[in-house]
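Data card: per-record layout.
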Amino acid sequence: MHKTHGMEYKKRIADELLHDKLEAMGAVLIEGPKACGKTTTAEQHAKSVIYMDDPTKQHQYRQMAETNIGYLLEGEVPRLIDEWQEFPQFWDAIRFEVDHRNEDGQFMLTGSAVPVKFGKIHHTGTGRYGWLTMRPMSLWESGDSTGDISLSDLFDMPDKIGGFNKLTLPLLAFVVCRGGWPKSLQKKTEKAALLQATEYYKAITSSDISRVDNVKRDAERAKRIMRSYARHQGSQASIATILADISTNEPENVSDETVNSYLTALRNIFVIEDMPAWNPNLRSRTAVRTSDTRYYVDPSVGVAALGLGPNDLINDLNTFGLFFETMCVRDLRVYADALDGSVYHYRDKNGLECDAVIHLRNGAYGLVEIKLGGERLIEEGAKTLTSLADIIDTTRMKAPSFCMVLTGVGDFAYKRTDGVYVVPVGCLKP
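The structure for this 430-residue chain is written out next.
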């Protein structure tokens, strides 16, 4: 077990993916939100490291990056270049180096923002670079899920499943507000653990949202936009909706472009990650809605934006359900990555919707409805899933491998008589 900064390292799903990519590519770019654990995971695989944001050496590094960047690339491999995005010249220099060395697993780059000057990067990096997206920890990685049910096993359509869920409603409310930030797991008290997300939200609105592309943005406006975004989790709210939401509190008229520039900045620092629409072959001609669904990368950011804590969620189950969905989407994305799949949503003009479709590269897919819990909601979710499965044209594409209602509360995972799996998120793993 690797130690890291005096703490025991908690293994991540990304470890295996990173290992595989280092074996296959000359360099790997690891992206994801600040504080989600990119550097710590990369350090487990690195033989030498250079921290570009080290304040004592930053000036020196800047000079060298301008004059003799090759020198910064010398060292045992894999060599980790942490927070490289300030120095886009690394991209071409590493590409050149990888071509010349002609060996895999030479470099890792970590970054918590998309480089501003991506235009300065001459070459896309195809064939030299592998990409890895990291997100905050899933419940399985943070030790809050038993992992009794494996998502990959569900693709084999088992006749029976069994798992026990230890997440009660209060515990669930806590893990939604705490989020999957590795630092928060190291804290001794719940209060200290919850503070990580709040402080992170403050850092986003006061500095990170402006730092990403050196455009000065108003912290109060950023807060208003993030609050509105939080209220619209899991919906396809348009820019106009968000604009209407914030304009009552705005001192001056704000344009669509302004709201869009704030959202783009949040996207570029990986704070929001919207979900694309799924477009299957259907038996009848139903128009499918193609706009993305709005999500934060972690529910804790949205909860912090609204200034809520675990008790607030327990007292308002609608809001709780909203952020529970965001948390489930985070986990499904992390697990889908491990299975080389992607997560989409489905909504059509007739009002039929499905929260998540996990689509694997081989064309197999599973349909998922997310419900906080309770018989009535599970029943509703199962009904939705069977209705969607019924309209898919199986002469032109595969039938769904499984239908699953992903729940919050409920003691067990089981298979219903109609074939729908009911799985508490506290039992799930990749």
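Known properties of this structure: The first strand starts at residue 3 and ends at 4. The two ends are 21 Å apart (CA to CA).

See the next section for split statistics.
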